[in-house]
Amino acid sequence: LSLPASPLLAVMESMAVSTSVMGSADEFDRNVPRICGVCGDKATGFHFNAMTCEGCKGFFRRSMKRKATFTCPFNGSCTITKDNRRHCQACRLKRCVEIGMMKEFILTDEEVQRKKDLIMKRKEEEALREASRPRLSEEQSRVISMLVEAHRKTYDDSYSDFKQFRPPVREGPVTRSASRAASLNSLSNLSDASSDSFSQSPESVDMKLMNFSNLLAMYQGNSPEPQKDPTGLSMLPHLADLVSYSIQKVIGFAKMIPGFRDLTADDQIALLKSSAIEIIMLRSNQSFNLEDMSWTCGSPDFKYCINDVTRAGHTMELLEPLVKFQVNLKKLNLDEEEHVLLMAICLLSPDRPGVQDHARIEALQDKLSEILQDYIRVHRRSRLLYAKMIQKLADLRSLNEEHSKQYRCLSFQPEHSTQLTPLVLEVFGSEVS
């Protein structure tokens, strides 16, 4: 038989709290000491509508259940303290009533048992939910840690290396001396950096993709002096160095993706050439500022707006969708783990032009995609987040295609192609398809 429903019990069950319900006043300032309103002892919470200690709570419950009647041996006005509260039960009970304790708040034995059963049931349900909650495996956590470490090693959020590039010129032509000196210094620095992070094996992807010493000699011996740019592309030398530097960092990141270096050198090169600009666009989202739609990379000299990129020869056919992409990606509020997983998934795309071992690359990408989905589930993010992230990869393909068109327009004009770095010419100049 079901017991009569008690409105009080219903409220208490819905809140799933114990008889020691914390009052709203207590919630406002947890630092204020709680004092029992009956005896002055340390209170444990609101009991039967008043702030009391455990001793006075039990005394009031027993007294009400027994319907006890007490008589004060004195004049009925005893002061109740922690030490003498047992001496006069009459004045103690009187004090309980005075501070607002009500017998209507006392549960019957049946109600107490029902509440205990309810609490136990909810504990079991919570334990079951905890046991069934998705968790990342040790292997998945290891892969994420490796990707995060790879990104941190190849992305300098202080942007200190930008000082090595040919200086940004937002107005007027590029001077010969400043452009050439900074360009050669930049290329030399990239060459030094590559010797530490790339394998020297003749068959390695690094040697097949670039030989910095030869490139430096070629640039110093055969390339003409940078000329004044009559078309006004004053930012092209600086941004060419920035892109060249970013390609270097993308290669370093790729080398640390689990499984990437197990691919053939030709497949590594095909993936890098096809995806480099997409990874750069993903990486640049860290410096993208929603407030003024700019890429802020440290000092004011390295704060880039749309006009700066147009001064490097790109048009709004690329820049408008690029800014839209950056805004939408920024609004996803990806954490670092999600960001690096998306970059790795983007790079390991089996449908890139020139790829030979499609099955192997697809298996690597599928593994990373599964890790990303599990990561999102574990951290209770939006169920739509994964789909939104994958959509960004489709957007990047369109941006990549438009970038290739505009790059070809630049590279076919000698006065502009001489401003590009050998690495940019190597990666973007030789079409895989």
Automatic annotation (TrEMBL):
GO MF terms, alphabetically ordered: nuclear receptor activity; RNA polymerase II cis-regulatory region sequence-specific DNA binding; vitamin D binding; zinc ion binding
Phylogenetic lineage: Eukaryota, Metazoa, Chordata, Craniata, Vertebrata
Self-association and partners: Homodimer in the absence of bound vitamin D3. Heterodimer with RXRA after vitamin D3 binding. Interacts with ncoa1 and possibly other coactivators, leading to a strong increase of transcription of target genes.
Location in the cell: Cytoplasm; Nucleus
Name this protein carries in UniProt: Vitamin D receptor a
GO terms under cellular component: cytoplasm; nucleus
Family recorded in the similarity comment: Belongs to the nuclear hormone receptor family. NR1 subfamily.
PROSITE patterns tied to this protein: NR_LBD, NUCLEAR_REC_DBD_1, NUCLEAR_REC_DBD_2
Record's keyword terms, sorted: Cytoplasm, DNA-binding, Metal-binding, Nucleus, Receptor, Transcription, Transcription regulation, Zinc, Zinc-finger
TM spans (from-to): none
Domain Nuclear receptor: 33-108
One family name in Pfam for this protein: Hormone_recep
GO terms under biological process: cell differentiation; heart jogging; heart looping; intracellular receptor signaling pathway; negative regulation of transcription by RNA polymerase II; positive regulation of transcription by RNA polymerase II
Primary localization class, coarse: cytoplasm
Purpose of the protein: Nuclear receptor for calcitriol, the active form of vitamin D3 which mediates the action of this vitamin on cells. Enters the nucleus upon vitamin D3 binding where it forms heterodimers with the retinoid X receptor/RXR. The VDR-RXR heterodimers bind to specific response elements on DNA and activate the transcription of vitamin D3-responsive target genes. Recruited to promoters via its interaction with BAZ1B/WSTF which mediates the interaction with acetylated histones, an essential step for VDR-promoter association. Plays a central role in calcium homeostasis.
Segments forming domain NR LBD: 139-429
Domain of life from the UniProt record: Eukaryota
